[in-house]
Amino acid sequence: MPRLFIGLELPAAQTQALLALAEPGPGLRWQSAAQLHLTLRFIGELPDAPTAQLAEALQRLQASAFTLQVGGVGYFGSPQRPSILWAGVVAPAPLQALREQIDLLISPWCAADPQRFVPHVTLARCGSECGSLQPFLQAQRGLLLAPWQVTELCLFASDAGQGGSRYSVLVRYPLESK
């Protein structure tokens, strides 16, 4: 049973710019182009019937297309044991509103997520031997990629495999043109 999540695909130009940030380092497992995305809501494993119901519920999404821009870098975990190295987004208000609507639509299948929503694109996963990320964070603190128009939301399946997870789009949900 695949793990499900709702997110955004990145345009090729932003994907390439983020891939160019990769630096060799102990314990860093950089994401591939196929793994770069922005997760709006992790769902987890669901059997086929509830997955189909959830996918149908998302058809009721009423959101307009919006402009998004990747900017800044950070990490999850402690400075001594970071777990995820990420790129953030500038002005995340449209993402927050979209996330809130998604949470309402999927509530019958997915409990509310108590964690604060931090929109980000995972750049690398940090193993136990990962050292300080401060040099990278300092070098990339001014990261600002070109903005793009977000025109669709995706329901993804995540399948764990050798070399990391593989993501596939199950359903695309177009956002309304302004």
Q: What profile does the largest beta sheet have?
A: 5 strands, antiparallel
Fraction of residues in β-strands: 35-45%
Whole-number count of domains? 1
| Tally of contiguous helical segments | 4
Query: CATH-wise, what's the superfamily?
Result: Cyclic phosphodiesterase
The percentage helix is 10-25%
Mean pLDDT: 92
Distance from N terminus to C terminus (CA atoms, Å) equals: 37 Å
Dominant shape: globular
| Strands in their spatial order, largest beta sheet | 2-6-5-4-7
- Identify low-pLDDT runs: none
For the CA atoms, what is the radius of gyration? 16 Å
Counted beta strands:
9
CATH topology: Cyclic Phosphodiesterase, Chain: A
Helix-strand makeup class: alpha+beta
- CATH top level is Alpha Beta
The succession of helices and strands, N to C, reads: EHEEHEEHEHEEE
Q: So, CATH architecture?
A: Alpha-Beta Complex
What does this structure look like?
This protein is 21% helix and 38% strand. Strand 4 (66-77) and strand 5 form a beta hairpin. The longest helix is centred in the middle third of the chain and has 14 residues, at 93-106. The protein has helices at 12-19, 48-57, 93-106, 134-139; strands at 3-9, 28-30, 37-45, 66-77, 82-90, 120-126, 148-150, 152-159, 166-174. The chain has 178 residues and is of the alpha+beta class. It has a single domain, classed as Cyclic phosphodiesterase (Cyclic Phosphodiesterase, Chain: A, Alpha-Beta Complex).
